[in-house]
Amino acid sequence: MIRTARQMLTCHWTARRLQRYLDADPAAPLSAGEVARLEEHLAACERCAEAISQHRTLARALGGWGRRTPVQPASVERMRSVLDDLVREGRR
Ligand SMILES: [Zn+2]
């Protein structure tokens, strides 16, 4: 029970930082502790690992070094809804 609640909170926490983690935005860097916590969660949580792998595929395609895999609007939509679900669940 406690573990489930904690995991949901962490999914929410993770989803909110995923973009910054992947972009490594110098204007809003994650602390080393945040990165460690995020990676620990990704290793344990299938849904967040799936979200991040979709996000990476998308980022690669958008970045141009994945030109063989053109971005489909549907995959952008799917990515958004995965993140939205994670964020929404954390709020419950
Ligand atoms: Zn998660």
Explain how this protein is built.
The protein has 92 residues and is mainly α. It has one domain. Helices cover 78% and strands 0% of the residues. The chain is built from 4 helices and no strands. The longest helix has 22 residues, at 2-23. The chain is globular and about 35 Å long. It starts with a helix and ends with a helix. It binds zinc ion (ZN). Zinc ion binds at residues 10-11, 14, 41, 45, 47-48.
Quick recap of the structure?
This protein is mostly helical. It is built from four helices and no strands.
Q: What class would the helix/strand composition place it in?
A: mainly alpha
Bound molecules: zinc ion
Poorly predicted runs are none
Strand fraction band?
A: under 5%
Radius of gyration: 14 Å
The helicity comes to over 70%
Average pLDDT taken over every residue: 79
Biggest pleated-sheet summary: none
Tally of domains: 1
Q: Tell me the number of helical segments per DSSP (H or I, 4 or more residues long).
A: 4
How far the N terminus sits from the C terminus, by CA atoms, comes to 15 Å
Tell me the overall shape: globular
Work out the number of β strands: 0
Task: List the helices and strands in order.
Answer: HHHH
Layout of secondary structure:
Layout: H1 2-23, H2 32-44, H3 46-63, H4 73-91
The site of zinc ion has 7 residues, from helix 1 and helix 3.
